[in-house]
Amino acid sequence: STTTTTTTTTTTTTTEGIDTSSLSAYFGSDAQFSLFNDAIVASGQASFFLDVTATSTLAVPTNDAITSTYTTAEWNALLSSQSSAFSFVFSHIWAGRDSIATLSGSNGRVITTFSDFLVTVTVTDNLFLNTAAVVDGNIAVNTNLIHIISSPLVLPGDEVTTTTTQGEDTTTTTTTTTTTTTTTSTTTTTNEGVDSTTTTTTTTTTTTTT
Question: What is the reported pTM?
Fold first, then answer.
């Protein structure tokens, strides 16, 4: 059993409603990622997206990309299963900060995501992660980089994997309990019709993993 307590104070400026103070804030404030954010919530791993010190790369499908791949019933089924949502979300995230330039110079590289999903980098007339094209990227959120992709990396039915050892199914369960206390002060200013919000947030997160 491991208990970690982290206290972080972050000051960020938000323009036109997009909050980059944390991954959680970013996905919660950018409407084009609302479905991916629903999967984050369903995964039960909110603490990861509140961490402002981790360094990772995220390849994220927009709402349109998800709805063009998943039917409503398939997506609702994914959200109803914490393990499926976890697999889906963390199949799109890996350690390290890979820019578009880095990925474009890595043709044939195989990336292992946090869910042990394999992603192959292909560079032709475009940059592809498996069969998903990278349509935009290098969006910096703290020490993380987000790239927008044309379709999910994980297809319907592929969210849950089972490891078989010597003919027997093996299941590993990790239970994470997170308590977060956040104090926020906000100042909003308007310049030439554009609202800018400066937010100072102090977050104390206690995470216990068993």
Answer: 0.69
